[in-house]
Amino acid sequence: xxxxxxxxxRAGARRVARYPAFIGxxxxxxxxxxxxxxxxxxxxxxxxxxxxxQRVGQQRHGYATTTNPNxxxxxxxxxxxxxxxxxxxxxxxxxxxxxxxxxxxxxxMDLRYVSSRELAGQKLDSxxxxxxxxxNLGVEEVAQLDxxxxxxxxxxxxxNGVCKPYIEALNQVRAExxxxxxxxDLSADYRFDETWTYGLPELTKRSAIAQSKNxxxxxxxxxxxxxALAPLRGHCLDAHVFGVSGYSGxxxxxxxxxxxxxxxxxxxxxxLTGHIHEKEISHHLDIKTAFLPHVAEWFRxxxxxxxxxxxxxMTSRDIRQIYQDRYAGEKLVKVSGEAPLVRKIxxxxxxxxxxxxxxxxxxxxxxxxxIDNLNKGASTQCLQNMNLALGYDEFxxxxxV
Length: 401
Ligand SMILES: NC(=O)C1=CN([C@@H]2O[C@H](COP(=O)(O)OP(=O)(O)OC[C@H]3O[C@@H](n4cnc5c(N)ncnc54)[C@H](OP(=O)(O)O)[C@@H]3O)[C@@H](O)[C@H]2O)C=CC1
Ligand SMILES: CC(=O)N[C@@H](CCC(=O)OP(=O)(O)O)C(=O)O
Description:
The chain is α/β, with parallel strands linked by helices. It has helices at 94-104, 139-147, 164-177, 206-211, 220-229, 260-263, 276-285, 316-326, 342-345, 375-390, and strands spanning 84-89, 109-115, 153-156, 182-185, 197-198, 214-216, 236-246, 267-269, 289-296, 302-310, 333-335, 351-358, 364-371. 24% of the residues lie in helices and 19% in strands. The strands form two sheets. Strands 8-9-7-10-13-12-11 form a seven-stranded mixed beta sheet. The protein has a six-stranded parallel beta sheet with strand order 2-1-3-4-6-5, covered by helices on one side. The radius of gyration is 21 Å and the shape is globular. Bound molecules: NADPH dihydro-nicotinamide-adenine-dinucleotide phosphate and ligand 2. Residues 90-96, 116-119, 157-160, 162, 186-187, 219-220, 248-249, 251-253, 373-374, 377-378 line the site of NADPH dihydro-nicotinamide-adenine-dinucleotide phosphate. Residues 55-79 are annotated as: Disordered.
């Protein structure tokens, strides 16, 4: 279904010529976050199921199923064949490095600037399409490059709470010049800001992402949890999400959560109430969710066990069918009967959902999800959003086969 980064065909040796700025995207009519409800959306047209033995769209169990109400835009959004110039702020970090690897294999993404205070002056070896040297780009330098029309898309891969001055400076350039370069922020800082588009393409209206200039990339745990919960939105009373992340989730700054001596031989609970992703899941799905995060000694990959109290009796088979219907045609979401294993998701670009274990009352289901926090939990999702908003195919440059 999805392949590892290392298995990808590397197209990076090619050099990208200098091209004029891409200006083909219309200004957004609305940046509001638009989630598609699976419980109320009726399938516009019937499509036979390819994933199960039953036909999709039939009401054989008393509650409506639907084919994917938010399918990939495909050719409708793939009109741009001009490269886009990218500036990456926070390029030394784990998510920044994962994104650089993806951009290196992308035919239209032309990385121009990588910012790091620690690595300033050093060559970026992992990018082979052009020679790039790390620079320490402060707010003024970024604003000047933007004003000079040197960058089409800025990606912010900074710790939470750091990027606001950059955004304010870019907004000032917009106000002064009318220029509108795209901004994608990987931090949690704008995930609750209604003037930004929350970019979880399988759940957010894709056409809204395509029209946006300010995209907040979802959190890693929050992405897996929302993909695991969304199809049951209309049947869910409340949910408990137990999550364990590899320690790359804690970033590169030394802390007890990425200290291998501290992690060895066990898992460590933290932020057991009030984690930002608890708020993020509850806010964007409108489901009362308790989130219980842990960190473990492996490097990358998240396991989530999601327990959902249902408002009616349901069977495991029917719930699984709802998920298969909801994610029909999605290249980065895999639904299966078995519980997915975290050791198998490392380096993969999608999210796997499985288990669908229903208790004896028929009113509680447990679903397991796995996701690579640095890929679909951050950089792969960022690239989906960049592709959509810059007018390329959403999955361009993402190994999905
Ligand atoms: N790691 C993960 O699994 C995920 C992370 N995220 C989010 O993505 C963002 C980046 O995470 P991650 O890559 O793990 O973080 P890292 O700690 O690995 O990297 C942070 C980057 O920001 C730079 N930086 C740190 N502090 C400052 C500062 N005050 N001013 C300017 N630059 C600074 C660092 O470079 P230098 O010090 O050299 O300047 C480094 O490049 C975070 O907001 C995180 O919450 C989202 C989903 C998943
Ligand atoms: C293990 C670990 O520490 N994981 C991080 C989640 C990484 C992430 O998605 O972060 P943001 O929401 O801050 O962008 C955490 O719990 O904060």
